[in-house]
Amino acid sequence: MIKKLITVDGSASREINLADEVFGAQVSEGSIYHALRNEQANQRMGTAETKTRGNVKGSSAKPWRQKGTGRARAGDKRSPVWVHGGIIFGPHPKDYSYRLPRKVKRLAMRSLLSQKNAQERLVVMEDFTVETGKTKDLVAILKKVNPQGEGRTVIVLGREDRVLRRAGRNLPSLSFLAYNRLSAHELFYASRLILLEQAAVGLNEFYADKRQGVS
Length: 215
Description:
This protein is an alpha/beta fold. The chain contains seven helices and six strands; from the N terminus they run ββαααβαβαβαβα. It has a six-stranded mixed sheet with strand order 2-1-3-6-4-5. Helix 2 packs across helix 3.
């Protein structure tokens, strides 16, 4: 698959070859669903907590003698049947995370990349950085690539660039991803997906079927 390579001024400079099995694959909606659900579950924090009879405050002394009072037997004030007593079978912090099979995750990433490419929301740019580290300089570049500036933009990096990340950290509609650490949530909701040239080359190899590495 041949794709135009865009420069920082928004013009097409040359062409780059993208792997059909990564950017032109059949979209698997089921794998995308499972990848999104897995990421949300792994980020979920189970904070619901109740106190058992061993956690609530109160004396452990027997409130009255066992027999002869005419009242029901009682062991202590922390009993679940008493007001302000412990809770039986209440919720406790839970770990909702689980591991998604590697093949499903890789299929989901290929499906998302292919989906964005089919929707013409994927752009491949020459490697660039913002040497000044200023947000306004990065915004000027993004406006040439995405004049409408609507929706969320995701930039996939081929190598770590702290200066570029610093320039874009003040933009709420912009996020960065490493080519070997993609996020299904970020890709799915991206209105514009920008791949830097080095990232596109890395994705060709990283998500090819012949690769057996862990994504």
